[in-house]
Write a structure and sequence with these properties.
Class I SAM-dependent methyltransferase; methyltransferase activity; transferase; methyltransferase; S-adenosyl-L-methionine; eight-stranded mixed sheet; 2 domains
């Protein structure tokens, strides 16, 4: 029986993907070995007809199928995904049982961070001489945002002796880099106990000791206690209370979700609407020689430096793009420092 048109199309696309991945893998594997990078972006819709994102994590591949602009029969889609996974396996010489592909849709609210499976496939990957735990199976995101690799390195390079605040810290990879750079103190804030505990694991993997406390304990302790602290709390509320307490930090990292409607928050967060309030509140907590790093994945985001009198605002997008994300990232990234 001859192949159906769908089978023929799938086979052609599988060969196209194999050829593209073979070329990318050959180039990026050399770069990764040279730079000590154990996790990197291999493919991101390079071929429009193949709407996948694929990342290398050591001896594994993890990624997702973007939502298509049309409905596709689930069984047909499963066969297509199996063919693409087989092509990726051949190209990267990675067994198919070490390839994890989920289905990604345009995210609103907290769905990007919710568990979609419970396989618990964890791996520890290297980056910049540090180790980070990733979950390849259960979430759309693995716990390590690869497009911030160079940003994290820049934070490490400037963290020595600094007091650091990491808001919406997720799994605290920025905080780990700051600790590796010799930060005098690091306060990592997030609403999720799951991610705070994950951040604590990342600290332990790299030999750093930290404690988890409540916002109330933080307010009562002030600068006392362990220098590295994880604080479960609403980022906006934390900023208000920190300002009321007269606290200051030398290095502030503000990398919030694009949108959040978590029940644990007092309201919703929409970065397009709220970025001015967030950045303004962070700037009131910045020490005179301090730096605020602000980043967002909101598409087509624009920021007017003129809205921040008294501060020098630098667009850091190009400076923070690494080899595997050139021409691919829509992330915006800025630094704020006091004008001299």
């Amino acid at each position: 029986m001859p192949d159906s048109p769908a089978d023929t199309k799938t086979a052609l696309q599988a060969e196209m993907l194999y050829n593209r991945l073979t070329k990318r893998f050959r180039h990026l594997r050399k770069w990764a070995r040279r730079t000590g990078t154990g996790a990197y972006r291999l493919y991101d819709r390079d071929i429009p007809e193949i709407p996948l994102v694929l990342d290398v994590y050591g001896e594994n591949l993890a990624g997702a199928l973007y939502k298509r602009p049309y409905e596709k029969d689930p069984q047909e889609e499963a066969l297509w995904l199996a063919a693409m996974a087989a092509a990726a396996s051949r190209a990267a010489d990675i067994p198919e049982d070490s390839i994890f592909i989920k289905q990604r849709e345009r995210q609103r609210g907290k769905s990007q961070y919710e568990r979609i499976q419970a396989q618990g496939v964890f791996r520890d990957v290297s980056e910049g001489g540090l180790l980070f735990r990733v979950n390849l199976s259960d979430y759309l995101d693995t716990g390590l945002f690869l497009d911030h690799r160079k940003t994290r390195s820049m934070v490490r390079d400037t963290a020595a002796g600094k007091r650091v605040l990491n808001l919406f810290c997720y799994t605290a990879s920025f905080s780990v880099y700051a600790a590796a750079g010799g930060a005098a103190g690091i306060d990592s804030v997030d609403l999720s106990n799951t991610y705070l505990d994950w951040g604590m694991v990342n600290f332990k993997l790299n030999g750093f000791d930290a404690e988890k406390i409540t916002p109330e304990q933080f307010t009562a302790a002030g600068r006392r206690g362990k220098p590295y602290r994880f604080i479960r709390g609403d980022g906006i509320r934390f900023l208000r209370e920190a300002a009321a307490a007269g606290l200051r930090w030398d290095l502030i990292i503000l990398d919030p979700p694009t949108f959040s409607n978590s029940k644990k928050m007092s309201g919703t967060l929409d970065i397009r609407r709220d970025y001015r309030e967030l950045t303004d509140r962070c700037l009131t907590l910045l020490s005179p020689a301090g730096t605020l790093w602000f980043s967002t994945n909101a598409r087509n985001f624009t920021l007017d430096p003129g809205d921040f009198p008294g501060f020098t605002v630098r667009d850091m997008k190009k400076a923070t793009l690494d080899e595997d994300f050139r021409g691919k990232s829509h992330r915006s990234c800025y630094t704020f420092t006091y004008e001299v």
